[in-house]
Amino acid sequence: MPQTIVILTEDALNPADVQHITSLHAGEDVDFRVLVPADTERNVVTSIIDHLGLGELRAAWEELVRREPTPAEATATAAEQLAVSLNLLREAGAVADGTVTDDDPLPALRTAVGDSGGPDGDDGVLEVVVVTYPHAVEDTFHADWASRAREELRVPVLHLYSGTSTLG
């Protein structure tokens, strides 16, 4: 029976992300479970610092003037991101399913890992892969999803920055 790789991503996976993730376990019997949060809450200050830290002045301004999405809009966006991610994984030959989570994805991540039978069983979660953009504040203070997951879960957690092979 295959083991599961849980992927937590803040945006749709792109082809480079799928290639990096699937190559980690090439030839192994694994399935993928993708979690995409419906981003209904945002920290404007943190987002602006992230954009400014990357030299993205226009994106920082757009973040400042942007309104928060309604729960329905956030859920619809996350569902689209999930569909794109699942299609790319399946096109790469992977078995994949997924779900949209609440804004804080850690409870859903805990459930996904806990419901799997654990890391020692043949049907357990082998690892968690978190795919995000760089977030200067959260990454520096270890408040990002990957750091929080490492503290709470008993499985390996890999943090990749979207579209790159850079580890977070």
Write the layout of secondary structure elements.
Layout: E1 3-9, H1 15-24, E2 30-37, H2 44-53, H3 57-65, H4 71-91, E3 95-101, H5 106-114, E4 125-132, H6 136-140, H7 145-152, E5 157-161
Parallel strand pairs: 1-2, 1-4, 2-3, 4-5
Task: Write out key terms for the chains shown.
alpha/beta
Give a written overview of the molecule.
Mean pLDDT is 83; it is low at 118-122. The chain is built from seven helices and five strands. It is globular, with a radius of gyration of 16 Å. With 168 residues, it is α/β, with parallel strands linked by helices. Strands 3-2-1-4-5 form a five-stranded parallel β-sheet. It has a single domain, classed as HUPs (Rossmann fold, 3-Layer(aba) Sandwich). Helix 2 packs antiparallel against helix 3 (57-65).
